[in-house]
Amino acid sequence: MIVNGKHHRTVWLDEENSQKVVKMINQSLLPHLFEIVTYKTYQEVANSIKTMVTRGAGAIGGAGAFGMALGVAQTNSERELRQAAEIMRNTRPTAQNLFYGIDCVLNKVTDLSGEARMTAAFEEAQRVADEDSDNCKKIGEHGSELIRDGMNISTHCNAGWLAFVDWGTALSPIYVAKRQGKKVFVYVDETGPRNQGARLTAWELMNEQIPCKIIDDNATGFLMQRGEIDMVIVGSDRIAANGDVANKIGTYEKAVLAKENGIPFYVAAPTTTVDMNCPTGKDIPIEERNQDEVLYKWGWSDDGRFIRIRTSPENAEALNLAFDVTPAKYVTGIITERGIVKPTELANLF
Amino acid sequence: MIVNGKHHRTVWLDEENSQKVVKMINQSLLPHLFEIVTYKTYQEVANSIKTMVTRGAGAIGGAGAFGMALGVAQTNSERELRQAAEIMRNTRPTAQNLFYGIDCVLNKVTDLSGEARMTAAFEEAQRVADEDSDNCKKIGEHGSELIRDGMNISTHCNAGWLAFVDWGTALSPIYVAKRQGKKVFVYVDETGPRNQGARLTAWELMNEQIPCKIIDDNATGFLMQRGEIDMVIVGSDRIAANGDVANKIGTYEKAVLAKENGIPFYVAAPTTTVDMNCPTGKDIPIEERNQDEVLYKWGWSDDGRFIRIRTSPENAEALNLAFDVTPAKYVTGIITERGIVKPTELANLF
After folding, report:
1. Rounded to an integer, what distance in angstroms lies between the CA atom of residue B109 and that of residue B71?
2. Which of residues 134-173 of B touch A (CB under 8 A)?
3. C or N: which end of chain B has fewer Cβ atoms within 10 Å?
């Protein structure tokens, strides 16, 4: 999508001094600074996923694939390559797309060697990235059919183009609807503890000139009760075979509140997010992150520095669950690149 | 309650140079700095309520009464006194206790003059403060009967002693249960946008040596789904005659989630919070506060300053509703100083 008048993807392959490099937007500094970082090794890419320089289901899928391709270029040893894959895999535990991106590249280079092996790895990584972008665009086209002119839409966290290679999932239908001339207003959940809604979703929507307001996560339910929200669209990090949906912590709360208030609740995700080997939501591992993400807030000081402030007592303890599981019964439909299905009808897509 | 080994109330009357002054804990700097401020005029007290130097239903009830008594001391003119009451009343629109505190003092001085008028005003303000503290203690005694040894309790915002003159409402049953030798663990909702849970409730609980963890507001529902929360207790800023409860934004969300997960949801409040002139929750005015409270976060920097950081894009807009209304059907019971009642049986208390 467009940043300062120029088209960008969140993560892409480039060349510096005849060497392949992976570039990505540093999402940890957004919306305060727009910075592009360059990585030459899979270790650097793994670290960028772990520290959330890049984040979001599809973006770390693309980063995983590109990182794995760097790994292929770094070693001819099968043992070392397996180790690299392990390191990449261990960066984040919940998102299905990460494992998909890594495995695509790994599977492609089996039985290859030399130049052909490297070429295949980079081509496959590029294919994974393009596929993600194409899928997201199709999700936008299908999802836009649900959007009527004048709707107020609620979204949680960032499942926009920054969370994917391009277009995004939850926001893609809104971007497509805008291009169709429909008026849409978005209530953006701030999405604590890391505020991806306030930081990234609001930034994306403002860049696309879509009117929006940031609300505290606590306010979504009350706006639903007051009839000010017509539809909820969120993304997903993994969808179990039974239609249970893992997504950013707080998604479950919004889904229950949507149901209670008779508001349609949609999940937008490419079919690569579906894990048919995972029978139910209970089988999805839930990442517990460092408690400092709850005890501190990060942002831009009045004197222009990106700093943290403590918002809790010294020595306080926190529990920081990064994702939750929304049981299928709360999900109106899942918007995929192959069409919109009921969560119980996922198997029909495969 | 105890701070650094010494008993404190949140707001109290004192004397400096033979002049009555109102003192209060500056809650805007907690938990980083413990500071006591002194006010000599009702205008200063009004400003302290507006800017949330003091906040919470009972604390601003006490501050309203003490401020009004200063107003009585400042003027003999009936017209000026009405004006002072108007200024005090216009500081915050939602909390019933504020109006109660102001009106108690106003009604007491009608037909009095001179020394008797001033004495009556300060005595009545003191009575309002003592009544608040006594009511909260009784709420703790009644509420403690609901708490079994080993329970995990969830609370939203701060309805502890800082929100009242002493003891608090939602936290008072926990303080009493602790004194009865029961083990209690508290999940503290951070409570955005102003983080009163992370800042004030965690600080109170840690001072009282009650084990607790701060969680992001988005995590409460998932912990309920996982069976890790046994009961919810929150406070209230105003209760309508039909049992609908106005409280900090997000309370409605937690109430719906508690019901969905079969978890008892209690509201603790003195009967002074009940507004029998307010038929339903729809008649309670909901304060909309400055959008900067959502766009920025306030806290303590690593170099020891209380500062704000921006957590949203430049020029972003926010909507900042400070309270919501929880319909009576989600409330298991209301814990008052006169006992625990169903929300539909409020009238029996009067």
Report:
1. 11
2. none
3. C
What does the pLDDT average to over B98-127? 96
Residue count (chain A): 350
Contacts of A298 in chain B (CB under 8 A): 309, 311
Contacts of B225 in chain A (CB under 8 A): 252, 324-325
Q: In chain B, whose CA is at the least distance from the CA of A28?
A: B311
Residue A313 is nearest to which of B192, B206, B250, comparing CB atoms? B206
Q: How far is A265 from chain B (nearest CA, A)?
A: 16
pLDDT in the model for residue B32? 94
Residue whose token pair is 């809104």: A174
Q: Let me know: does A125 contact A73? Beta carbons within 8 Å.
A: no
Interchain contact B317–A (C-beta under 8 A):
yes
CB neighbours of B340 closer than 8 A, spacing ≥ 6?
B142, B143, B145, B146, B266, B333, B334
- Residues facing B25 on adjacent strands: B36
Contacts 24+ apart (CB under 8 A), B17-25: B20/B69, B20/B70, B20/B73, B20/B122, B22/B63, B22/B66, B22/B67, B22/B70, B24/B48, B24/B53, B24/B54, B24/B59, B24/B63, B25/B54, B25/B162
- Options B166, B230, B237, B244, the catalytic residue: B237
Query: Is A237 assigned a catalytic role?
Result: yes
B209: contact with A, CB 8 A cutoff: no
Q: Which of A132, A166, A217, A237 is catalytic?
A: A237
- Cross-chain Cβ contact B317/A214 below 8 Å: yes
- Burial label, B4 (beta-carbon count in 10 A; 0-12, 13-18, 19+): exposed
* Residues whose CB falls within 8 Å of the CB of residue A163, separated by 6 or more in sequence, listed in order: A10, A55, A56, A57, A58, A59, A157, A169, A200, A235
Q: Which residues of B touch A203 (CB under 8 A)?
A: 313, 316
| Residue A195 sits at the chain B interface (C-beta within 8 Å) | yes
Interior angle at CA A35, CA A34 and CA A37, nearest 5: 155
ipTM score assigned to the predicted complex: 0.93
Condensed to tens digits (0 to 9), the pLDDT of residues A7-24 reads 999 999 999 999 999 999
CB-CB under 8 Å, B31 with A312: yes
Chain B residues whose beta carbon lies within 8 Å of the beta carbon of residue A294: 190, 198, 214-216
Distance CA A104, CA A125 (A): 8
Tell me the pLDDT of chain A averaged across its residues.
96
Question: Computed from CA positions of residues A331, A336, A342, A344, in that sequence, does the dihedral angle turn out positive or negative?
Answer: negative
Give the separation between CA B93 and CA B278, rounded to whole angstroms.
14
In degrees, to the nearest 5, what angle opens at C-alpha B71 toward C-alphas B68 and B76?
Answer: 130
Q: What would the mean pLDDT of B118-144 be, rounded to a whole number?
A: 97
State the nearest Cα–Cα gap between B280 and chain A, in angstroms: 14
Convert the pLDDT of each residue in B177-215 to its tens digit.
999 999 999 999 999 999 999 999 999 999 999 999 999
